[in-house]
Specification:
Order of helices and strands: EHEHEHEHEHEHEHEEEEEEEHH
Number of helices: 9
Number of domains: 2
CATH topology of the largest domain: Dihydrodipicolinate Reductase, domain 2
Largest sheet: 8 strands, mixed
Strand order of the largest sheet: 8-9-10-7-11-12-13-14
Bound molecules: NADP nicotinamide-adenine-dinucleotide phosphate
Mean pLDDT: 97
Structural class: alpha/beta
Oligomer: single chain
Length: about 325
């Protein structure tokens, strides 16, 4: 039988609440501690989601020997710092995407996990959605012939608020690291690391990237056509275009969703999602606990290599598009 794991939340913002509500669905997860920069926020969050403890500093929570696993839910600009802090306190880490600001930071996080023999995984929840897994199975089965083109988008019209996370470059603002990372993930997990990348980007008054179009080209002639934006809405779907048909992960493709399939000579068919409860964050949290049960420090599914490849591609996109984060780019890989 699985151990009951004491989970802590580091950074009690918007996504932390959604994650906590899904954590409640898992019998082997105990909602143990909420840690915030302010005790009032920690207390309010702990009350709302039934955590046993509230800490007014991240460090105080990390000094609690009863904490087993920490969900890092701060802005991407702080993932590197907060992940290292957790790992150096020997706490298992599930850290939100984007995993960090650049590849150098990701590499140091991985090194730190190895040095501390402590679990580390990027919280790329799409990897664990049953619908994403099923779509990948169909694409990889070869029944539709070779995959040639991936089209993926993620856009929503986000009100321009200068100092908020989405538009504030010191917090990693811009659509790319926040939502563009999903279409890039769709291309990476189906076609791999591209040979060449071409981009067009548009910028907000703060200098943060607001919209980006990305084209990837691969050795075998395959292509990906990817979009993210805070200036418009989009269907938020992913299309895998193959020689003999296509597979579509329907809107909102990165969450539990239906799949549409068409094969030459046949009718369009739909595989309906069986997901019924929660947002879909429970699948990644369950996976973390299975890894911990097995004594692993790296997930066999959302591996460090996938996170490293994803960040390397994001770095290359940033260089091509001229997207810079002055407070972090001293570490930029290229
Ligand atoms: N997987 C998903 O579906 C998903 C969805 C949305 C966001 N995310 C990711 O989750 C992360 C957080 O996003 P969010 O939308 O939850 O952000 P948010 O609402 O702004 O919350 C971030 C929290 O981080 C803490 N924090 C620590 N240092 C901070 C600083 N200097 N400035 C602002 N906040 C700071 C704050 O919590 P305290 O004040 O309590 O310390 C804040 O509430 C991002 O990396 C984002 O990409 C993932």
């Amino acid at each position: 039988m699985s151990k009951i794991y004491n989970w802590a939340i580091l950074g009690c913002g918007r996504i932390a609440g959604k994650f906590a509500s899904d954590l409640k669905l898992l019998p082997n997860a105990n909602l143990y501690a909420a840690a915030s920069r302010s005790i009032e926020n920690a207390q309010q969050f702990a009350n709302e989601w039934d955590f046993e403890k509230a800490y007014g500093s991240y460090l105080e929570m990390l000094n609690d020997p009863n904490v087993d696993a920490v969900y890092v839910a701060t802005p991407h600009s702080h993932h590197y710092e907060h992940t290292l802090l957790c790992l150096n306190h020997k706490k298992a880490v599930l850290c939100e995407k984007a995993f960090a600001m650049n590849l150098n930071e990701v590499n140091e996080m991985v090194t730190c996990a190895k040095q501390n023999s402590t679990f580390l995984m990027e919280a790329f929840w799409t990897m664990f959605q049953p619908s994403f897994t099923k779509a990948m199975e169909i694409v990889n089965s070869g029944e539709l012939g070779a995959l040639k083109i991936v089209r993926s988008d993620f856009a929503f019209n986000a009100p321009f608020i200068e100092d908020k996370r989405l538009y504030n470059t010191s917090l990693g603002g811009g659509s790319l690291l926040d939502i563009g990372i999903y279409p890039v993930f769709a291309a990476l997990t189906s076609l791999g690391v591209p040979k060449s990348i071409k981009t067009f980007a548009d910028f907000s008054p703060t200098g943060s990237e607001e919209s980006i179009n990305m084209m990837f080209k691969y050795d075998g002639g395959e292509m990906a056509n990817l979009t993210s934006s805070f200036a418009t809405h989009s269907p938020i779907q992913t299309e895998y275009l193959c020689e003999k048909g296509y597979v579509v992960l329907n809107p909102r493709w990165f969450t539990p969703t239906d799949i549409t399939i068409w094969k030459e000579g046949g009718e369009v068919s739909t595989i309906e999602s069986k997901h019924r409860e929660g947002f879909g964050y429970q699948y990644e949290a369950q996976h973390v606990m299975e890894c911990l049960d097995a004594g692993l420090i790296e997930s066999p599914k959302m591996t460090w290599e996938i996170s490293q490849n994803l960040m390397e591609i994001l770095d290359r996109i940033r260089i091509d598009a001229g997207i810079f984060f002055p407070e972090h780019d001293k570490n930029l890989f290229f």
